[in-house]
Amino acid sequence: MSAAGVALWWEAARPRTLPAALAPVAVGSGLAAHEGRLQPAAALLCLGFAALVQIGTNYVNDYADHRRGADTAERVGPRRAVAAGLIRPETMRRAAFLTFALAFATGLGLVAWGGPWLLAIGIASILSGAAYTSGPYPLAYHGLGDLFVFLFFGLVAVGGTVFVQTGAWGGAAFWAGVPVGLLAANILVVNNYRDVETDAKAGKRTLVVRWGRAAARLQFALSAAVAFAVPVGFWRAGYGPAVLLPVALAPVAVIHGRRLARAKRPGELIALLGETGKLLAGFGVLFAVGLAA
Predict the structure, then answer these.
(1) How many CB atoms lie within 10 A of CB 212?
(2) Which of 167, 216, 275, 292 is spaced 20 to 30 A from 34 at the CA atom?
(3) Per-residue pLDDT, 116
(4) Looking at residue 255, which CATH number applies to its domain?
(5) Among 116, 104, 71, 112, residue whose Cα is nearest residue 89
(6) Does residue 73 have a pLDDT over 60?
(7) Mean of the pLDDT values across residues 136-161?
(8) Interatomic CA distance for residues 92 and 97, integer angstroms
(9) How many domains does the chain have?
(10) Which residues in 12-37 are b (16+ Cβ under 10 Å) and which e?
(11) The domain containing residue 189 runs over which residues?
(12) CB-based burial of residue 99 (10 Å sphere; 0-12 exposed, 13-18 middle, 19+ buried)?
């Protein structure tokens, strides 16, 4: 494949969304390190699995949104490979299937640490990613995209990462997954906020379409507020002061909320989408360091 071809597939993978896959593994590994049970090989497999599920989900989204008419010439966001005629629909569908197959193969390596029941979690994650915008009941088209992201890129991803390294899952893993899931869902809020008009025309009933932009701004702000309160809760529960490191990024979240409210042009929201992903990545790294300290 040529360099241009590699660049095209990387663009279709939507790298701005990859912090949603990387942050939970960092946080889960930080919690495992806190308990003296960090397993680097298992953490790397979790990272590979999460990233491949995210990319596969994005490929399905590229294919399915084109078929359902959500990606048209009226769309104001970054170009989509299938809608732009750069990749044939069937090729994108096969790429999604292959990516999910690679994710499953990667996940099989985790059975050595977490046992065969992890197969069920892995299969559920892959099927949910595939069902995000495709199948008989596409989650994103029925306002369930935010819940999917919160559950699978927050609670499940963090909890699963902790479990495969420590052999246990408890309250700390649950609460560590909450801020990651909420900040990951905020990436989706920005994306859907930008696309609300074209989504409504295509029958894609995201929460922004259902409840409006004012409710989306409130969701964005509340999610950020809860996310940054969680490290404080860990500190009060007896973790060291380093766990408060991500709170230093709270002013950035406030700025993002103001930018969302004041955005008038699609370009502003495209830039904010990338910045929201970076915030999640920064939060994840700092929270992981704080938990491990």
Answers:
(1) 12
(2) 275
(3) 83
(4) 1.10.600
(5) 71
(6) no
(7) 90
(8) 9
(9) 1
(10) bbbebbbbbbbbbbbbbbbbbbbeee
(11) 3-292
(12) buried
